[in-house]
């Protein structure tokens, strides 16, 4: 008499056994994605989504396929589609664990999906303030991987987490003994269909790690030299003007006077010698003064 009850008890255990699945999924920032409970039967009674985000906040969505009744306190970007969840305009804040329970006539299907929203970085290759080649992948999620060609042990990597949960990956090539015509930064990221290659070119010899310093010194030297030349010419002009005041016959005058003075120069060779002596004294005076500054 007790056998039927025992059989009924065993059948009940079989009915309420749960199927557990744990998966991982990824979505691109700003793109739509669909999370699937992986249950395709038509005997679904209720679909329940429980979501815990990375910042520990929670929300839930329940959906009854037979009546299309939906209850939700999640973002309007999240809506059920059958036993799946449609997420539109994915954001970095959507990262988290998405738990789906499908209640059907033969039991419960339980699925856990870890979602990560991927953000594509932009990549730059520059020479930093220390004149070292520096490769950066900015705003990536997860952080990008950077390598160099040719490879070197003289590489300084660095990662920084930004407020928006994206990363800045920096790799600095500090090998001062590199000899070659080109140096290539290689960047890989899950959002790239293929690796990115950025190349900075040298001059065929030692890589111009100190090019910025050399350029700066050259510019400063040119400025100093130009200033000295200008200063010398200014002082020479001042000496000549002073000599004109003492010797009114030196310099440009009206044509009749100029002709008369030229005649005087022809008749008096010592006038030319005097002018030469005046200019020479001005020149050496300026030269000696400028030497005291060097």
UniProtKB/TrEMBL annotation:
GO terms for biological process: regulation of neuroinflammatory response. Residues 4-116 form the Ig-like domain. Residues 1-24 form the signal peptide. One of its GO terms (cellular component) is external side of plasma membrane. The keyword Lipoprotein does not apply. It is found in: Membrane. One of its GO terms (molecular function) is signaling receptor activity. The chain crosses the membrane at residues 207-231. It is a single-pass membrane protein. Keywords: Disulfide bond, Glycoprotein, Membrane, Signal, Transmembrane, Transmembrane helix. The keyword Nucleotide-binding does not apply. Residues 69-90 are annotated as: Disordered. InterPro entries: CD200R, Ig-like_dom, Ig-like_dom_sf, Ig-like_fold, Ig_V-set. Belongs to the CD200R family. This is Ig-like domain-containing protein.
């Amino acid at each position: 008499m007790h056998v039927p009850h025992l059989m009924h008890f065993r059948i009940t255990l079989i009915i309420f056994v749960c199927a557990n699945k744990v998966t991982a999924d990824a979505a691109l920032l700003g793109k739509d994605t669909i999370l699937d409970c992986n249950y395709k039967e038509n005997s679904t009674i209720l679909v329940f989504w429980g979501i815990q985000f990375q910042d520990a906040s929670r929300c839930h969505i329940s959906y009854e396929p037979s009546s299309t009744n939906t209850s939700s306190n999640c973002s309007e970007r999240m809506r059920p589609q059958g036993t799946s969840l449609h997420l539109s305009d994915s954001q970095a804040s959507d990262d988290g664990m998405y738990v789906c329970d499908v209640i059907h006539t033969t039991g419960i299907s339980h699925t856990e999906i870890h979602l990560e929203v991927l953000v594509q970085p932009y990549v730059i290759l520059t020479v930093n303030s220390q004149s070292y080649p520096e490769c950066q992948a900015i705003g990536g999620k997860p952080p990008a991987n950077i390598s160099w060609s040719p490879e070197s042990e003289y590489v300084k990597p660095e990662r920084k987490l930004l407020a928006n949960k994206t990363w800045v990956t920096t790799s600095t090539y500090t090998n001062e003994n590199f000899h070659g015509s080109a140096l290539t930064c290689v960047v890989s990221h899950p959002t790239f269909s293929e690796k990115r290659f950025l190349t900075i070119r040298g001059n065929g010899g030692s890589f111009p790690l100190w090019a910025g310093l050399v350029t700066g010194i050259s510019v400063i030297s040119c400025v100093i030299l130009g200033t000295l030349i200008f200063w010398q010419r200014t002082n020479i002009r001042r000496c000549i003007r002073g000599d004109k005041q003492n010797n009114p016959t030196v310099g440009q005058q009206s044509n009749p006077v100029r002709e008369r003075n030229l005649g005087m120069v022809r008749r008096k060779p010592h006038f030319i010698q005097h002018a030469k002596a005046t200019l020479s004294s001005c020149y050496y005076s300026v030269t000696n003064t400028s030497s005291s500054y060097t």
